[in-house]
């Protein structure tokens, strides 16, 4: 664990005194490294410490602006001709190590290879080159002469020590109780680097004063840390913290799925007991279903039910521009997730993120997918993964669905008649409108909303409620009931007219009747123009025939997928 300047200085000193030619520092800020090197130079009486920054140049202090890498290459060539002891610190040269060989990177590798050989064969040649940056892919010809120092994220003990160090550095000992740090403060700071934690402590101390360290932190302090953390994660681009207000009991239907989530809460409430007895925590669930059936709401409600924070993982932003970037990005992201665990990790539309993973030509995506699979199978430090997908058949490899990655796979169907009526009642209640319909009207509503998703019903209720409240009709009057009825059925009809046609047919006769009704005019045109067609009519017929066939095949495939998923995976409803 490398989380402060003293520890970094110790490691650098150890490697320099061991005559290691190349040291690669990963994920340290330039400020941290420069402070460490100044201290190192003073303590070890090193005369020559040279700095190179991609934007600032060579020198004993950074300064000269650069136009290209020639300054670095020429400077290194000249420096390495001398026999005097020296340290060269190079910051921001990752692009020369990304595997895409250019004239500059090729020349640098040649210089470094000669340099490594000279250090390893001449015991009196005491020179070390230190590279600092986010990540370096060290080529095989340099690996024997290189060591890596990585700035990993602090664990709970490290965070406690950082807080104590902050108190000492700012001379706050007289105003705080030693060892009385609130565990919630430590928990809230997990997932941040040493530098970020120090920054966060400065921010909250400036705003809230000494109470940050003397008592249980209140919601306002937690909120401020949350905001800071949110900013830090935004810089990564792959993770975001999601605030959740949804509760499992707010979900209509899905009784099996809700019961499963509630049952798993006990595991996360007794993590230490399970760890002590060698029992693994739950891995997670995969929720399949059509858009609008409540998958996202369930992911959010799961976090609340388990008492965990919700982190959304956008895998599509993992793919990098250069060789090795994508693999590096996902490994770094997974490390952050581990340090923020226990948490619920939500991966939305997972099938889209890995579309093409079965293609043998897409080796980078396959490697990224493999890294994620390995992490899901291993001890992921209490990250409960909730994956959501519309359909995975033929999209994701079978190994993704094996036990050990997800504990259960649930299929979420569209709500049935009873669930639809409950959804209408619930959505109107949340908009301050009691739904008062006669039995025959409720039966009509249930029939006309057949095939609607929860999202469809949410849309209808919101539009109806908006129009109702703007109409100034008073609740409880005859006008109120009639206004709601008229507005509601108008919106239901609007959705029926505009939503994508759904297949509910179970045999080919019904399919035939369904499509004759759907495409009657087009089919009649085609039948009436079988003979004596001019070139234009032939082209129109050809396009129509192709479009209708394509639509029919798509709808049939969707229907078959739904039927397969209902048979294959556990039904989320009771």
Automatic annotation (TrEMBL):
Q: What Pfam families does the record point to?
A: AAA
Reply yes or no: does the keyword ATP-binding apply: yes
Domain AAA+ ATPase per the UniProt entry, residue ranges: 281-416
According to its UniProt entry, one GO biological process term is: proteolysis
Superkingdom assignment: Bacteria
List the SMART domains hit by this protein, alphabetically.
AAA (SM00382)
Q: Which GO terms describe its molecular function?
A: ATP binding; ATP hydrolysis activity; metallopeptidase activity
Supply the Gene3D superfamilies for this chain.
Answer: 1.10.8.60, P-loop containing nucleotide triphosphate hydrolases (3.40.50.300)
Record's keyword annotation contains Membrane:
no
- Keyword entries, A-Z: ATP-binding, Hydrolase, Metalloprotease, Nucleotide-binding, Protease
Which protein family is named in the record? Belongs to the AAA ATPase family. Highly divergent.
- What is the recorded name of this protein? Uncharacterized AAA domain-containing protein ycf46
Query: Where does this protein come from, organism-wise?
Result: Jeotgalicoccus saudimassiliensis
């Amino acid at each position: 664990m490398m989380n402060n300047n003293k520890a970094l200085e110790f490691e650098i000193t150890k490697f320099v005194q061991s005559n290691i030619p190349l040291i690669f520092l990963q994920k340290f800020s330039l400020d941290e490294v420069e402070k460490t090197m100044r201290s190192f130079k003073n303590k070890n009486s090193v005369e020559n410490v040279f700095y190179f920054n991609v934007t600032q140049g060579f020198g004993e202090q950074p300064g000269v602006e650069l136009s290209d890498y020639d300054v670095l290459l020429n400077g290194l060539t000249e420096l390495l001709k001398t026999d005097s002891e020296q340290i060269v610190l190079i910051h921001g040269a990752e692009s020369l190590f990304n595997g895409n060989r250019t004239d500059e990177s090729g020349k640098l590798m040649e210089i470094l290879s000669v340099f490594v050989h000279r250090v390893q064969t001449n015991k009196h040649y005491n020179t070390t080159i230190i590279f600092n940056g986010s990540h370096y892919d060290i080529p095989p010809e340099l690996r024997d002469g290189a060591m890596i120092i990585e700035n990993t994220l602090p664990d709970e003990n490290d965070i406690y020590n950082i807080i104590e160090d902050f108190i000492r550095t700012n001379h706050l000992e007289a105003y705080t109780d030693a060892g009385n740090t609130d565990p919630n403060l430590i928990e809230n700071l997990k997932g941040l680097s040493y530098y970020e934690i120090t920054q966060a402590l400065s921010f909250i101390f400036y705003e809230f004063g000494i109470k940050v360290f003397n008592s249980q932190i209140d919601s306002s302090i937690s909120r401020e840390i949350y905001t800071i953390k949110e900013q830090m994660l935004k810089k990564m681009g792959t993770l975001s913290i999601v605030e959740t207000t949804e509760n499992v009991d707010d979900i209509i239907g899905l009784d099996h799925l809700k019961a499963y989530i509630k049952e798993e809460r006990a595991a996360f409430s007794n993590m230490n007991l399970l760890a002590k007895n060698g029992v693994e925590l739950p891995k997670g669930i995969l929720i399949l279903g059509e858009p609008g059936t409540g998958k996202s709401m369930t992911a959010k409600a799961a976090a609340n039910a388990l008492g965990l924070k919700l982190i959304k993982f956008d895998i599509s932003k993992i793919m990098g521009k250069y060789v090795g970037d994508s693999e590096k990005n996902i490994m770094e992201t997974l490390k952050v997730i581990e340090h923020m665990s226990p948490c619920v990790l939500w991966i939305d539309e997972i099938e889209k993120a890995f579309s093409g993973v079965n293609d043998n030509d897409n080796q980078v995506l396959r490697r990224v997918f493999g890294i994620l699979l390995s992490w899901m199978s291993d001890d992921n430090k209490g990250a409960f993964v909730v994956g959501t997908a519309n359909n995975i058949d033929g999209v994701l490899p079978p190994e993704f669905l094996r036990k050990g990655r997800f504990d259960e796979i649930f299929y979420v169907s569209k709500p049935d008649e009873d669930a639809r009526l409950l959804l209408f009642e619930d959505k109107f209640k949340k908009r301050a409108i009691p739904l008062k319909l006669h039995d025959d009207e409720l039966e009509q509503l249930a029939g006309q909303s057949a095939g609607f998703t929860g999202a469809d019903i949410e849309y209808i209720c919101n539009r109806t409620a908006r129009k109702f409240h703007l109409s100034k009709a008073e609740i409880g009057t005859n006008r109120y009931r009639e206004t709601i009825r008229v507005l509601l059925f108008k919106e239901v009809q609007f959705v029926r007219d505009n939503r994508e046609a759904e297949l509910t047919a179970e045999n080919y006769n019904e399919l035939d009747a369904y499509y004759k009704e759907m495409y009657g005019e087009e089919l009649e045109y085609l039948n009436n123009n079988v003979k004596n067609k001019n070139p234009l009519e032939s082209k129109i017929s050809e396009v129509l025939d192709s479009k209708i066939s394509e639509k029919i095949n798509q709808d049939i495939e969707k229907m078959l997928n739904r039927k397969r998923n209902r048979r294959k995976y556990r039904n989320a409803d009771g």
